[in-house]
Amino acid sequence: MPTIKIFPHPEYCPQGAEITAPAGTSICEALLDNHINIEHACEMSCACTTCHVIVRRGFNSLNEAEEGEEDLLDRAWGLEPQSRLSCQAILAQEDVTIEIPKYSINHAKENH
């Protein structure tokens, strides 16, 4: 099973974390399954940018982003070339390292 290393984030995982998830799982699902409650206001339907992550290692092992995801990412806070919507980024067999941006464009939290 691939490992996801998460850089420290003041709200979601202050100490950082390392979790595992089966290949074929989205990064968002893996985070939520491991009690890292990342925002996902659209319920993982690729309709917002609240689950935006920056993939620091293992980016090329993920499935390719589709046009709808790329269009949404253009609106994400802190967009970088390795940005993905975690609900659309599907794990393969390689380990990945991610950073959850400090901010999102969401003005209100959903408390999922």
Automatic annotation (TrEMBL):
GO BP, one example? P450-containing electron transport chain
Which keywords does the record carry?
Answer: 2Fe-2S, Electron transport, Iron, Iron-sulfur, Metal-binding, Transport
Q: Which GO terms describe its molecular function?
A: 2 iron, 2 sulfur cluster binding; electron transfer activity; metal ion binding
Q: Domain of life here?
A: Bacteria
Q: Identify which cofactors the protein needs according to its UniProt entry.
A: [2Fe-2S] cluster
CDD domains tied to this protein = fer2
Checking Gene3D superfamilies in the record gives: 3.10.20.30
Q: Does the keyword Iron-sulfur apply?
A: yes
Instruction: List cellular component terms (GO).
Output: cytosol
Pfam families, per this entry?
Fer2
Q: Could you tell me which residue ranges the 2Fe-2S ferredoxin-type domain spans? A: 2-104
Family membership, please give it. Belongs to the adrenodoxin/putidaredoxin family.
Name-wise, this protein is 2Fe-2S ferredoxin
Question: Gene for this protein?
Answer: fdx1
